Amino acid sequence: MSKSRGRRPTIIDVAERAGVSKSTAARALTGSSNITEETRERVVLAAAAVGYERNHLAVGMRSGRSGMLGLVIPDITNPFWAEVARGAQDQAAEAGASLLVFSSDWDVEKEAAHLRALRRARVDGAIINPVADNFDDLDRFGLPFVLIGSSAERFVETSSVGSDITQGVRLGMDHLVSKGHGAPSLIVGPKNRLARVRFLRAVHQHCIERDIDPAILAMEEGEYTVEGGKQAMRRLLARDHVGHVCVFAANDMMAIGAIMAVREAGLRCPEDVSVIGFDGIPSGEFAWPGLTTVAKPGRDMGARAVEGLFSEIEHKPEHRRIYLPCRLIERGSLADLSAQNPRRVARGGGV
Amino acid sequence: MSKSRGRRPTIIDVAERAGVSKSTAARALTGSSNITEETRERVVLAAAAVGYERNHLAVGMRSGRSGMLGLVIPDITNPFWAEVARGAQDQAAEAGASLLVFSSDWDVEKEAAHLRALRRARVDGAIINPVADNFDDLDRFGLPFVLIGSSAERFVETSSVGSDITQGVRLGMDHLVSKGHGAPSLIVGPKNRLARVRFLRAVHQHCIERDIDPAILAMEEGEYTVEGGKQAMRRLLARDHVGHVCVFAANDMMAIGAIMAVREAGLRCPEDVSVIGFDGIPSGEFAWPGLTTVAKPGRDMGARAVEGLFSEIEHKPEHRRIYLPCRLIERGSLADLSAQNPRRVARGGGV
DNA sequence: GTTAGGCGCGGTAACGTTCCCATGACGATG
DNA sequence: CATCGTCATGGGAACGTTACCGCGCCTAAC
User: Fold this and answer.
1) How far is A6 from B236, CA to CA, in rounded Å?
2) I need a surface site. Which of A123, A295, A319, B141 has the fewest CB within 10 A?
3) Whole-number Å distance, CA B149 to C1' D30?
4) What is the pLDDT of residues B223-234, one digit of tens each?
5) CB pairs under 8 A between A and B
6) The whole model's pTM is what?
7) What does the domain layout of chain B look like in residue ranges?
8) What's domain B65-163+298-325's architecture?
């Protein structure tokens, strides 16, 4: 009654109640070195009795480790990044750490502001999907970090976790070729985005392997959003084309926008236009037709990034660059034009 | 060169460089009381020169305010909650605070663990969508908090932010009646969830106003997921029914699952079965047909919750319960059976 | 001309924790 | 029996910050 009016119990309260010094109490509650089992038990009991809870702020001050990690992604509202955040969150929780989540909206200023906020909050490290095309902000960051997503390439000295875009693109290209499609039209992201470069390079590389001239590929760009994909698709449809159109979108949101644009134009997917996406967001399943897509392992990426960040924080030397494999999810948005199945195309309809 | 090898500059470094005491440096950098403009400037310059950044951990220890807020929601992967998180995030950032995000997966144990983590991290307060049907964990929480979502009802003494379910349900019911539908079948959440109770109560209340016996409403339950909605819809379709079926789902994910189940059953939406949802998640737009739904203002809710939390943290007395209005988003999943438009039903097709 | 008050500044304590060192007791070994 | 080592414990410092208090100077008022 004398204490505890609003104040939260400290280790001194525990020590007093157990009749020991705060040093002993601390020993009992953390490492178990040099302490009688009996005293330890007495302290633990006292701690439980007063409802003691270690103050992470104080621990952080003393140890220099705050037990917090930062996550800077473009938009938590984007289902793919939500998956990443979830994976990171769970993995962090497992290690007893908390996650500070920030959305940069693909905005360099916001990103810089968030990195500053993370430094002030004294996070132990951060997982970052950088949007800036230069790495000045990252250089200035000064804390351990792991890059996530497609932007890792330029920063060779840094640990990173991404998906294997080359393998993913191959998966997609192989699939659409196996379904009888030729070189696809492309919907890609904005110019200054590194993700766009990686995607395009993988496509070109694959085209060359197949003796296709990459230059003949029609291409439109847009923001990595449904609206961006919709607009890009409209422009694509406005071009001259003969026969079935096949579109490879660099991102599922854009792919879904593309499907919507197809419908708006009075065309049918996949009968008139085939669309294949890239990301593997859950909502692709309940688009209509279901979105055929190359799925990145978002949740795994988040989890692995946290793992990597921890080893970055602890034993500095281990620089690793991890590329997790993608997998193909076949739903209904890609027509089967192959010779064996000339009329399987009509399947998607139903209405 | 003597200092700074890895160490981050403290206010003492700033003070030394400016040739003042750390007290003066602190005064210059925080409140501006009792300090010469000239000294202040000198300190600020010195701070910039050494790259000083205030240590929030230390500030937190000293002041008792950590500048961090907690957010505990069922699942960041659920688009609705992602919207809420985003709104909270932005609002917190505006006030210079950071947000710790946790997903409870509708799991009481996890929720309790996350609340403990938040206390240890010394957050200043939390925004919580409680899943437990009792409030023991919340009682034990001991920090300022604001409830968010449908579970606020039982805790009359607590500030809360939610959507106006009653008004939302009325919006949905009025809409489906205006389109010529009778009493809808319901797809609701699991038994022990407070959200379910609120939804059902609103529906019943509205039925009574319209002289409909609530008891005649068919009802199936499921998890608040696409799969849960799909299964519930299958069971609903297995029942006897005549004519057009109209379904009011308590959540958009379930509504989308319902549409998928309709398609799987070889039926058409909205020609054979009408579906209306509740949440207003963005992905409802690119389902096919587009999901007609009652939209909650998720982002606003998150933002208002942070506002409320701050006033809870600062001037305790202000207990407020806020219910933000829902709005109807009309897309294609609800057939128009009204007399004026007997054949408008076919519209949704297009294929 | 003397004194009171205001203002700018420096010293110090305190927030809660952990780590290092000192102290004392006890057991083991010569 | 004496000495050394081990081990449980207590005391104190330090992490970086801010609030409080006291000191000295300058100005204004009597």
Assistant:
1) 53
2) A319
3) 69
4) 999 999 999 999
5) 142
6) 0.90
7) 11-54, 65-163+298-325, 165-296+328-348
8) 3-Layer(aba) Sandwich (3.40)
